[in-house]
Every structure is written in C-alpha cells, then in structure tokens.
Amino acid sequence: MASFTPLQRLVIAVAVLASFVTFLDGTVVTVALPALSRELGGGITTQQWAVDSYLITLSSLILLAGSVSDAYGRVLVMRIGLIAFGVASVAVAAAPDPLILIIARALQGAAGALLVPSSLALITAVMRGEVQSRAIGVWTAFTTAAQLVGPLLGGLFVDFLSWRFVFLINVLPIGVNLVLLARLRLSEAPHDARVDWLGGALCALGLGGVVYALIEQPHQGWSSPAILITGIGGAVLLVVFLLRQRRPRPLLPLSLFRVRNFAWGNAATLFVYAALSLNGFVIGVYLQQGAGLKATEAGLASLPITILMILLSPRAGRAAGRFGPRIFMAAGPIVMAAAALLLLLVSPQFDYWWQVLPAMIVFGIGLSLTVAPLTSAILGSIDESRSGIASAVNNAVARVAGLLVVAMLSTIVGGTLDLGGFHDAARVTAALMAIGGVLSWIGIRRPAPEPVAEQDPDPVPDPADG
C-alpha cells in the first residue's frame, strides 16, 4: 500500500487541524454548560442556545462557505476562517451575560463554517481512490477524537480554572495551522467567483427561525405569536431557499443528490449525527447534574470512545477502501444503537463502571466502523471539481441534524434532564442510529474501481526522438 507523499501529509495535517478546532469547540462546551448557566443564568434555555447559536451559523453558512471555497480557493478561505475563529473564541471567553455569549458563539460558528468544507476539499483535491480513503480515515480519527476529547479538556478547565478558558483551548492549534498553511503550495485555479449570497441568507434566516421556535415553544407554547411567526416564517424561507436552488449556479446543487451514494449517505448522516449530538449533549450534562460527577469526571466518561476511534478509524477507512463502505455504514450505527440501549442500565444508584463504561466501549467500536467509510463514500462519489460544495453539503446535513435534535431536547426529555429524561434520550438515540444503519444498507453501493491506464509493454520508438 502506497505511503503518503510529503505534500499529502502536509495537506492531511492542515485539514485535521482546521477541522479539529471546529469540532472541538462544538463539543467542548457540553461539560461547561452547567457552570456556564450557574454563572450567567438562564437554565436549560441558556444551555441550549450556547450549543445551537454555534450550530445555526455553522450549519446554515457551511453551504455558502463550500461555494466560496470552490470559487476563491481553499487555502485563502481556510486562513480567513482560522483568524476569525480565534477572534470569536476570545469574545466568547469574555462574555459578561448570556446574550453576548450567544452572539459570540454565533460568530464562532460562522467562522467555523469556512473551515470544514475547505479542509476536506483539500484532501479530495489532492488524493483519490484508496489513498483518499486512508487520508479520510486519518482525518476522521483525529477530528472525531476532537469531538470526543473535547468534554475531557472542557472538564479539566471547568474544575481547575473557569468555564471561560474552555473557549480558548483552540488558540494553539489555530496558530500552528496558520504556520502550516504558509508552507502549503497548491496551484488552485479559482472557478467562476459568482456566489449565491442571497441563498445563504435565506438558509441562515430559515434555520434560525425554525430553531428559535423549537427551543422556545416549551416556554411560550405553540400558540404564542412569536413562536408561530418565527417557526412558520423560517419554514417558508427554507422552502424559498430550496426553490431558488433550481436556478443556474445554485448554492445547494440538487443534482448532487442524483448520485446514489451521495444521496443515501447524506440521509444516513442526518440520522446518525442527530443521534451523536443528542447522546453527547445528554451524557455531558446528566453525568454532572443527575449523577453528581465533576466536570472532569463527566469528560473522562467518553474517553474510551476517543481511544477506540484513534485506534480503529484509520483501519476502518482502509478496509472500506478495499471492500466498499456499505457493510461498515450499516453495521456501525446498529452497534451504536445497541450501545445507546445499554445506557438504560443507568439507575439512581449510579455506577460508571457497570452502567456507562460498557456502552462507551460498544459505542466507540460502532463509531469507528461508521464515520470514515461514511465520509469516504459520500465525498468519493463526487467529482473533484465540486468537492468543496459536496463536503459542505455533507457537513451541513450533519450540523443541521445536531442543531434540530438539541433544539428539540426539552420535548425529548420531557422538560427535565432527570433519570427518566436520560433514558428517553437513550431510546431516541438508539432509534435514530438504527434508522441510519438501515438506510445505509438499503442505499449504499460499492463504488466502481477507477480505471487504470494501461502501458504499452513494448512501445515503438518515436523517430522524432532521434
């Protein structure tokens, strides 16, 4: 098996670090939520908005960012995103009240939207075939580990410093990646630079309206004018956004969904990542507020998943490159569904070793089987010239899934994240995972091998060569 070239290794390092800060900041907040709401106030609503304000801008602008990445060049877009993300992180850490924190988190998400599609697009632009699958396996291992190790790092900062330092964790990787970007020399030829800015605004406002209604309706009720106006208005804007995509040069090329693996892979992504977001949020908060663990202990709870991801995800990526992604994308979510059901063992007499650890181990195995093959199947099915927007669509689907499930948290857990709510969330997680596995089995197919140009074993000399 061919090893990576120096250029490919540099691209992987840049892509990993760029996505690392985005995914880390999306999950590091989970164990900081109880401390954050204690200091700033607002209870579960502040906790939901601390997560969803980030996800709203990240998920709604990621399509626009993918289009901008293809139009103006991935390296330039990534550099701008890194600098903006660092500035927004400082603003979050200094927030004096919930409103400023929520606004700063939204700006952070907007900057993060510039990073994820451009990072994966770099990999798909430089590598194809089995090498690409291996590279995506490495990217997946470390970026998913960032999501999983985030609660541990966040817990350490909360317990020994302050929740505010949680949002400064990414300063170092941002600085390192800016240095690596300066060394990366790619001949990127920008495409036609017309970008659908209005479409991006419609998507952002539509998602914002729907999410506001979902989060606030338990407090104001569906009959509230504010809920009706924002919810219905947001849904209408999303419909207008989709209708607009039938024009030439759309922000969301609907033609991508005519590619089988892309369409079915994104359908599976919707359910799998909704389950991942729900599970991560609930475990991070319940283990502190319900089971009485410290923030660091709650963060350590998911460490087995991180270890297994680092060990197994690159191997799953290589195996998917050889045998096709279908079996991995079907089996992985089913294994994670079983892991979620194991969390029903959690009782008032809490015991991490017997009630949570088995679920974390099984969950880590299932996640390792799933993520790299899923990403490789989706992005490997799309031509390199549209890799930026393809990556953006897939990441937008994943973030929207998390956004909506967190917005519906109060409905899922019955208004309070007590033991009964924790069990309800585990059941919903298992159901979402199972649906993702079934969709993968039904829809995903093994990609056709890339043709290899045959060489003439005995070429005829060209007289012009002398």
Can you describe what's shown?
The chain has about 475 residues and is mainly alpha-helical. It has 2 domains: about 5-185 and about 250-450, Growth Hormone, Chain: A; about 195-250. The chain is about 75% helix and about 0% strand. The protein is built from 19 helices and no strands. It has helices at about 5-25, 35-40, 45-70, 75-95, 100-115, 115-125, 130-160, 170-185, 195-220, 225-245, 260-290, 295-300, 305-325, 325-340, 350-355, 355-380, 385-405, 410-415, 420-445. The longest helix has about 30 residues, at about 130-160. The two termini are about 40 Å apart. This is MFS transporter. Keywords: Membrane, Transmembrane, Transmembrane helix. It comes from Microbacterium capsulatum. It is found in: Cell membrane. It is a multi-pass membrane protein.
Q: Quote the average pLDDT.
A: 79
Quaternary organisation: single chain
CATH class of the largest domain: Mainly Alpha
Judging from the principal axes of the Cα atoms, what is the shape?
globular
Radius of gyration: 22 Å
Order of helices and strands: HHHHHHHHHHHHHHHHHHH
Q: CATH homologous superfamily name of the largest domain?
A: MFS general substrate transporter like domains
Q: Segments where pLDDT lies below 50 for 5+ residues?
A: 450-466
The first-to-last residue Cα distance is: 38 Å
Number of domains: 2
- The number of helices is 19
* Secondary structure: number of strands: 0
CATH structural fold name of the largest domain? Growth Hormone, Chain: A
How does CATH name the architecture of the largest domain? Up-down Bundle
What is the helical fraction, as a range of percent? over 70%
Structural class: mainly alpha
Largest sheet: none
Strand content is under 5%
